[in-house]
Amino acid sequence: ELVMTQSPATLSVSPGERVTLSCRASQGVGSNLAWYQQKPGQAPRLLIHGASTRAIGIPARFSGSGSGREFTLTISSLQSEDSAVYYCQQYNNWQGTFGQGTKVEIK
Amino acid sequence: EVHLVESGGGLVQPGGSLRLSCAASGFTFSSSEMNWVRQAPGKGLEWVSHITSGDTRTYADSVKGRFTISRDNVKNSLYLQMNSLTADDTAVYYCARDLGGSEQLVSDYWGQGTLVTVSS
């Protein structure tokens, strides 16, 4: 079973700071990795696919990197509206496994 | 503008059945691949099922044999027939459009979700 592990579970950051979220796969998934943002009471929003390709309309402050088993989502300068839970998802196999999420809070 | 609206959620007893619907607009539904993704209360996301434009269907192991995904390209609608429901199926169910191609199972547009509660 392919497991996606995100760290940290929660992050408290001041506006304007750089944020780095991690996602690790229990086995290699190539570049078949997506990131989503979910705010309370809302549906998820696709941020990144193909490990590093920003989805349509996503601000340039969001970037993704990595391949194989280790992936990173970076927010270059945190804005107040970026407070949310962030999920990674692998789609290298037909289970489409999500990580458990990282909650980003604004200090 | 892409618009997805789920319906059909509600309270159902363990062992019961429910059929979810998703009305799609703002894109060419017939040529689009689609997903169902669910989220248990206070928990993370779980991919449930995928259907291609050619009607090929794939399921998560947790629902295989109990859930059936289908589509009606005339009505621009996606469905999820859920049978033999258990408490573990309690969740908000999202309909989502799939990126398709080499990015299958990636969802770029999502509905607002419909809540399914399995309880006696």
Outline the structure in words.
The complex is a heterodimer of chains A (107) and B (120). Chain A is mainly β. In chain A, strands 2-10-9-4-5-6 form a 6-stranded mixed β-sheet, with no helix packed on it. In chain A, strands 1-3-8-7 form a 4-stranded antiparallel β-sheet, with no helix packed on it. Chain A has no helices and 10 strands. Helices cover 0% and strands 49% of the residues of chain A. In chain B, strand 4 and strand 5 form a beta hairpin. Chains A and B meet through strand 4 and strand 5 of A and strand 5 and strand 10 of B.
How many helices of chain B does DSSP assign?
0
What is the string of SSEs of chain B from the N terminus onward?
A: EEEEEEEEEEE
How large is the count of helical segments of chain A?
Answer: 0
Strand count, sense and closure of the main sheet of chain A?
6 strands, mixed
Mean pLDDT of chain B: 97
Helix content of chain A: under 10%
The protein's oligomeric status is heterodimer
Strand order, biggest sheet of chain A?
A: 2-10-9-4-5-6
Label the overall shape of chain B.
Answer: globular
The largest pleated sheet of chain B is described as:
7 strands, mixed
Mean pLDDT of chain A: 97
End-to-end separation of chain A: 37 Å
Q: Structural class of the helices, strands and pairings of chain A?
A: mainly beta
Percent of sequence in beta strands of chain A = over 45%
Largest inter-chain contact set? A-B, 22 and 22 residues
